[in-house]
Specification:
three-stranded antiparallel β-sheet; Crp/Fnr family transcriptional regulator; 232 residues; disordered N terminus; alpha+beta; disordered C terminus
Length: 232
């Protein structure tokens, strides 16, 4: 695994955007890891000991309520970092960090990363810029969740997944989708059926295939195009 990933350019876009010296310095303290769907990186109140720069796959930060209900707060793929708050100061997790789609990452000890970023302004600035984009996404999501209906939010969520994974098919159960969107399963089913009738997706037994990207974008709310939400 290590030899394979060291031969390949890292898939993480933040790392790819660094200058060669900064990139090599960061990779020198990084460990390649794999993760499976459902893998939990941290739970609420855990000390964040590692940053995970995602190379492939899809992860979420999930708020966990006292009654056991969950809702996704942040989606993270190749553009980002799990546990990024600990890149600045030692910190404890507010949410559960969990993998949605299997993939790989570069794991970096948080304390070592803080020491590295103190010595390398390019690394520090790249992470700061990512955190600013993430803040924009969170602010836009607050308005979206309050004002836009489930069908629009579901289309936006699928587009965000599609941006971050390889291929057009997503293996996500109805129960999981409802949990991520903070909606009832019946609401998710209605939204999925509406998108299927529009020809945007095919939906069956937890498998969603994007058939018409343009139709899916038309169905999504404006929030997909704002707040740093859309990924290149």
């Amino acid at each position: 695994m290590r030899e394979l990933m060291n031969r390949l350019s890292p898939g993480n876009r933040l790392i790819q955007g660094l200058n060669p010296d900064d990139r090599d310095a960061l990779l020198s303290i990084a460990t390649p890891v794999e993760f499976a769907p459902g893998h939990v990186f941290s739970e609420p109140d855990d000390a964040i000991e590692h940053l995970h720069f995602i190379d492939s796959g899809l992860c979420s930060s999930v708020a966990v309520l006292e009654d056991g209900r969950t809702v996704e707060t942040v989606m993270i793929g190749r553009e980002g970092v799990l546990g990024v708050v600990a890149s600045v100061v030692p910190h404890h997790a507010h949410t559960r960090s969990v993998a949605q789609v299997a993939g790989t990452a570069r794991r970096v000890d948080a304390a070592k990363f803080r020491a590295l970023s103190a010595q390398r302004p390019g690394v520090r600035d790249a992470v700061a810029e990512y955190m600013a984009r993430l803040q924009g996404e969170l602010e836009q999501s607050a308005a979206c969740n309050a004002l836009h209906h489930a069908g629009q939010r579901f289309a936006k969520w699928l587009l965000r997944c599609h941006d971050r994974v390889e291929g057009d098919t997503l293996n996500l159960t109805q129960e999981y989708l409802a949990s991520m969107l903070g909606s009832q399963r019946t609401t998710v089913n209605e939204a999925a059926q509406g998108l299927q009738k529009a020809g945007a997706i095919a939906y069956s037994r937890g498998r969603i295939t994007v058939l018409d990207r343009a139709a899916l974008e038309r169905a999504a709310c404006e929030c997909y195009r704002r707040g740093g939400d859309r990924q290149p």
